[in-house]
Design brief:
alpha+beta, Thiol Ester Dehydrase, Chain A, 3 helices, 23% helix
């Protein structure tokens, strides 16, 4: 597993539900934001992925909600890839409040799809690292 990368996010009022809690679907948006931020920091853009004929796909996402988040809360969203030998990989993420309280834990299984063949590519980690200008972040 790579070193954990994180991005700051402030919960916005329009992202909350009628009880004032962060809406459940927004946790996944925060996780996705952290993933793309990590890829960007590693030197991989969406345009470069598409241009190389591949694109990331989500195969499974599990969210464990631990503590509520409210409008104005400031959090860090971490992101760490776990590469395997096969066609899929895991992404481990934590949404943590400033005081260290874990608000949510997100585990995702992803793959890298060949956009022409519409099939997962073998060894996605190596493909990602080959595209990155700073593969150490991956």
């Amino acid at each position: 597993m790579s070193e954990s990368f994180s991005v700051p996010v402030t919960v916005r009022g329009y992202e909350t539900d009628v009880q004032g809690h962060l809406n459940q679907s927004v946790y996944i948006n925060y996780a996705e934001h952290a993933r793309w931020s990590l890829l960007k920091a590693a030197g991989i853009t969406q345009a470069e992925l598409i241009g190389s004929g591949v694109g990331p796909v989500a195969l499974e996402t599990t969210v464990r909600y631990r503590r509520e988040l409210l409008a104005g809360d400031e959090v860090e969203v971490s992101c760490a890839f776990e590469w395997g030998e096969g066609k899929t990989f895991r992404i481990q993420q934590t949404i943590r409040k400033k005081d260290g309280t874990v608000a949510a834990e997100i585990t995702a299984v992803g793959g890298l799809m060949d956009l022409k063949e519409r099939r997962l590519v073998a060894n996605a980690g190596e493909v990602f690292k080959g595209l990155a200008s700073d593969p150490s972040l991956l």
